[in-house]
């Protein structure tokens, strides 16, 4: 049976230094492998054990990196194992096939956005008008599809995020707070739709998924089985799905556990 594994990357499989959440003494800490360098600085890691597990997974299933990152941001990542034929970027806005965006898929996404939600310019204007310079550090647009803010999390009022979420909901958009970033994403722009398309193209009969944020919820619900780590938006909210397992591990060791679960499912059910 062909098995498709669609996994979020940041804070699910790979981790920045600040997100590692290592709780063991330094002498017992797992060995880490750097998988992303940006501006000549190491940025993202997984454990060496996770690297081996990911290599095995790439040989046993159709592994599809699934991320809200832009294509340019995704291309900085150098994952171990076979190069994935498919990758989902920009929260489903781009479906990469051998590293190249599939134009037909992207066109279908743009048509849905035009039909089903408020335009990006309206959301950008709202963010510009209402974000407070006291806590706002950067405002960005990703792939002309969605917007995000980089903030000082300690200074960010929780009520502001809740107010933004209500405003966005009424316009067909969703809001996700991940670390120092607040994402505003059109509801029709989903990882799950892109995953289903890859499953159709590959003939996969079993789909597995993992993710930690609100933007991963649709992916987890669409898969036959899913896993979420013990940290992140979904864990903080106590979010659950009928076929989604909530793992206790937090930080980089959660990524290792997720890969073990993927491999176990591929070998027993695939």
Protein described:
This protein has nine helices and 14 strands. 42% of the residues are buried. It folds into two domains: 3-110 and 189-269, Rossmann fold (3-Layer(aba) Sandwich); 118-186, Hypothetical Protein Ta0175, Chain: A, domain 2 (Alpha-Beta Complex). The strands form four sheets. A five-stranded parallel sheet has the order 4-1-12-13-14, sandwiched between helices. The protein has helices at 48-60, 71-75, 103-116, 120-130, 158-169, 191-202, 217-222, 233-236, 252-269, and strands spanning 3-7, 32-38, 41-47, 62-65, 86-89, 94-97, 100-101, 136-142, 146-151, 173-178, 181-186, 206-210, 225-228, 244-246. 35% of the residues lie in helices and 26% in strands. The protein is an alpha/beta fold.
Number of strand segments: 14
Largest sheet: 5 strands, parallel
Can you tell me the CATH topology of the largest domain?
A: Rossmann fold
CATH homologous superfamily assignment of the largest domain: HAD superfamily/HAD-like
Specify the structural class. alpha/beta
- Rg result: 18 Å
What is the correct CATH architecture of the largest domain? 3-Layer(aba) Sandwich
Please give the alpha-carbon distance between the first and last residues.
5 Å
Strands in their spatial order, largest beta sheet:
4-1-12-13-14
CATH class (first level) name of the largest domain: Alpha Beta
Q: Roughly what is the average pLDDT, rounded to an integer? A: 96
Reading the helices and strands in chain order gives EEEHEHEEEHHEEHEEHEHEHEH
Whole-number total of structural domains? 2
Poorly predicted sequence stretches spanning 5 or more consecutive residues: none
The share of residues in extended strands comes to: 25-35%
Helix content: 25-40%
């Amino acid at each position: 049976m062909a098995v498709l594994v669609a996994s979020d990357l940041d804070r699910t499989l790979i981790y920045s230094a600040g997100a590692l959440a290592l709780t063991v003494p330094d002498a017992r800490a797992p060995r880490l492998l750097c998988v992303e360098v940006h501006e000549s600085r190491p940025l993202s890691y997984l454990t060496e054990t996770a690297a081996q597990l990911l290599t095995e997974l790439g040989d046993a299933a159709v592994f599809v990196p699934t991320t809200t990152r832009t294509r340019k941001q995704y291309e900085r990542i150098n994952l171990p194992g076979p190069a994935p034929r498919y990758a989902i970027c920009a929260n489903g806005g781009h479906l990469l096939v051998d590293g190249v965006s599939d134009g037909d898929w992207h066109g279908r996404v743009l048509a849905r956005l035009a039909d089903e939600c408020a335009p990006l310019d309206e959301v950008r204007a709202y963010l510009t008008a209402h974000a407070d310079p006291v806590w706002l550090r950067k405002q960005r647009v990703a792939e002309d599809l969605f917007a995000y803010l980089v903030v000082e999390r300690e200074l960010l009022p929780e009520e502001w995020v809740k107010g933004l979420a209500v405003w966005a909901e009424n316009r067909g958009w969703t809001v996700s707070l991940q670390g120092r970033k607040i994402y505003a994403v059109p509801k029709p722009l989903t990882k799950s739709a892109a995953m289903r398309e890859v499953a159709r193209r590959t003939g996969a009969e079993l789909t597995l998924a993992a993710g930690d944020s609100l933007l991963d919820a649709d992916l987890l619900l669409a898969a036959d089985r899913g896993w979420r780590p013990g940290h992140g938006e979904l864990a903080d909210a106590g979010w659950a799905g009928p076929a989604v397992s909530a793992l206790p591990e937090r930080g980089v060791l959660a990524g290792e556990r997720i890969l073990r679960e993927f491999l176990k499912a591929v070998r027993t059910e695939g």
